[in-house]
Amino acid sequence: MKVAAIQMVTGTQLAANLAAAEALLAQAAAQGAELAVLPEYFCAMGRRDADKLALQEPLGDGPIQRWLAAQASALGLWIVGGTLPLSLPEPSDSHVRNACLVFSPAGERVAVYDKIHLFKFDDGTRRFDEAATLQPGREPVLFELPSRDGHRWRVGLSVCYDLRFPELYRTLAARGADLLLVPSAFTHVTGQAHWEVLLRARAIENLSCVVAAAQGGVHENGRRTWGHSMVIDAWGQVLADHAEGPGLALAELDPAAVAARRAQLPALAHRVLG
After folding, report:
1. What stretch of H or E contains 121?
2. Domain 2-270 sits in which CATH superfamily?
């Protein structure tokens, strides 16, 4: 199965961001991708953290969700919609969910994952605290993706800062995941230090493929993100890496290779502590 990790440098305006994402999704489909993963905050990165509150949508309705469904149907793609701000069950003017939605090639929503771990960072110069505007999720989420080659991938969802918490990925693997998705917006400083090693570690630990779509560049709001969208195989080898700016990391994933690695090194069956 060919997969595409889509890299963006998202701005502040929803319409412009959707237009940029549409062009990249079309490129992915034209190059034979079955699955395309958009980055975290693909739809908007505001000048203030609270700007996302104005874009919030109830689950099941809203212009961003309709756009994702239409793109998936028009292009015949499985699309993982990075993240978008979803309203809480009781709508709030201070907090939303940072939600990752998955749409099938029929345009149907098949999975919703709310980011569990919320980023906090302060080095005296840069300061981030997602909990100021986001409510964390609680539950790991998987979905099944039947690819054109007949394999049924078990796909585990995660978002950005989740990457630092291996217990989430171990849970996904224990529930049968063989493909892990990581739409992200890593900062330049943390990405330069940790991004690749964390992604490769999650692949190696769980003998699973990883597709990580990133933000990568200098944004309208002044933030700089690391980029390096990647596709990684179950042995931890980087199959594709898009360093900076908008673009695609494209690669073929082979389910037989995953099965072979798991047979050669049955580490998942050797777990003792959970």
Report:
1. strand 120-122
2. Carbon-nitrogen hydrolase (3.60.110.10)
pLDDT values of the chain reduced to their tens digit, one per residue, 274 residues: 999 999 999 999 999 999 999 999 999 999 999 999 999 999 999 999 899 999 999 999 999 999 999 999 999 999 999 999 999 998 788 999 999 999 999 999 999 999 999 999 999 988 999 999 999 999 999 999 999 999 999 999 999 999 999 999 999 999 999 999 999 999 999 999 999 999 999 999 999 999 999 999 999 999 999 999 999 999 999 999 999 999 999 999 999 999 999 999 999 999 998 7
Domains in the chain: boundaries: 2-270
DSSP summary character for residue 195: I
Is 160 annotated in the active site? yes
Contact 236, 1 (CB under 8 A): no
Please confirm, yes or no, whether 2 is among the known catalytic residues.
no
Are 57 and 68 spatial neighbours (Cβ–Cβ below 8 Å)?
no
Of 40, 43, 57, 100, the active-site residue reads 40
From residue 58, alpha-carbon distances to 3, 53, 129 in Å are: 29, 12, 23
The whole-angstrom separation of Cα 37 and Cα 159 is 11
Indicate which residue of 43, 100, 160, 209 is catalytic.
160
Ordered alpha helix ranges (H), 141-185: 166-174
**144 among known catalytic residues:** no
The secondary structure of residue 10, as a DSSP letter, is: -
